[in-house]
Design a protein that fits this description.
By secondary structure, this protein is α/β, with parallel strands linked by helices. The protein folds into 2 domains: about 1-30 and about 230-285, NAD(P)-binding Rossmann-like Domain (Rossmann fold, 3-Layer(aba) Sandwich), CATH 3.40.50; about 45-215, NAD(P)-binding Rossmann-like Domain (Rossmann fold). Helix content is about 35%, strand content about 15%. It has 10 helices and 11 strands. A 7-stranded mixed β-sheet has the order 5-4-3-6-7-9-8, with helices on both faces. Strands 1-2-10-11 form a 4-stranded mixed β-sheet. A hairpin with a 2-residue loop joins strand 10 and strand 11. The longest helix is centred in the last third of the chain and has 22 residues, at about 220-240. It is elongated.
Length: about 290
């Protein structure tokens, strides 16, 4: 059978092994990829999650919820909160838009200087850009109120940019929102939580690590996702998965596991499994698509 959905295999070894065992064809939304390297089926949920990260972060900065007791946008005569966003992709860009719109003092960090130049051009004046490295991250920690983890390694596990020892450098009541939790999290102390019990506290730092943030706004999320997935679903239904993937390179790159074989290299690497090229099932697909 074909299963066409979000998997995030690299962060979930048990799920990976289960899908290998049941011999399903696993076509992952998150690795369907356009020629420009964009991820069309990840974008809608990344847009939702990036915007929600600020919405939730602002709420958990409130004192009754163990935050610092600071209003994100401040008021006349009182400085706004400082927001640090790690990652300048879709999640980070949408988070920055929301935080800037609420009046916060925002810093976006990324390793791609070209991306930082673009963001510097398009973002409002209260959004600054900063090269991402361990030194610069540590330099920011003692002064920020809200940190958003928005790092993506397509199909792979997110790197830990904030380690356990860094929590001591943060002020009590600082809020961490790790949007990358679906891919293992970019904060070492991150562990998946639920909408029913979304936060926990370590070293007086509030962690919000809900693994399916868009699930809190199902109306918006469903419409946004359907707009993106429907054209691909129609191709799969009309042609079958083999022909659809042979005809459309974007869909072929979404293949992660086929009949027990791991065909996506980042997933194989994450768990030291054998990587089988998907050409075994599709033929010389690169000449066809």
């Amino acid at each position: 059978q074909l299963v066409f959905t979000y998997f995030h295999f690299a962060a979930y070894e048990d799920l990976t092994k289960a899908m290998i065992k049941n011999k399903s064809i696993c076509l992952a939304y998150e690795t369907v990829e356009k020629p420009d390297r964009s991820l069309p089926l990840l974008v809608p949920m990344s847009e939702v999650a990036g915007r929600m990260a600020i919405q939730e972060g602002a709420k958990y900065l409130e004192k009754p919820l163990k935050g610092r007791g600071i209003l994100l946008g401040g008021v006349p005569g009182v400085r706004p909160a400082k927001v640090m966003i790690m990652g300048g992709g879709v999640v980070g860009t949408n988070a920055a838009k929301m935080a800037a719109g609420m009046g916060a003092d925002v810093t976006i960090m990324d390793v791609n200087l070209q991306r930082l130049r673009y963001l510097d051009d398009v973002m409002p004046a209260n959004v600054n850009t900063f090269m991402s490295n361990e030194y610069n991250i540590r330099e920011m920690l003692h002064r920020v109120d809200l940190i958003v983890g928005a790092v993506l390694i397509p199909g792979g596990k997110a790197p830990h940019l904030i380690t356990r020892d860094m929590l001591k450098e943060m002020r009590p009541g600082t809020v961490l929102v790790d949007v990358a939790v679906d891919q293992g999290g970019c904060i070492e102390t991150c562990k998946p939580t639920t909408h029913q019990d979304p936060t926990y506290i370590i070293d007086d730092v509030v962690h919000y690590c809900v693994a399916n943030m868009p699930g809190a706004v199902p109306y918006t999320s469903t419409l946004a996702l359907t707009n993106a997935t429907l054209p691909y679903a129609i191709q799969l239904a009309e042609k079958g998965w083999v022909k659809a993937c042979q005809d459309n390179r974007e869909l072929a790159l979404g293949l992660n596991i086929i009949k027990g074989d791991v065909v996506y290299d980042a997933v194989a690497e994450a768990f030291d499994l054998e990587h089988v090229p998907f050409e075994k099932y599709l033929g010389n697909v690169w000449d066809k698509i």
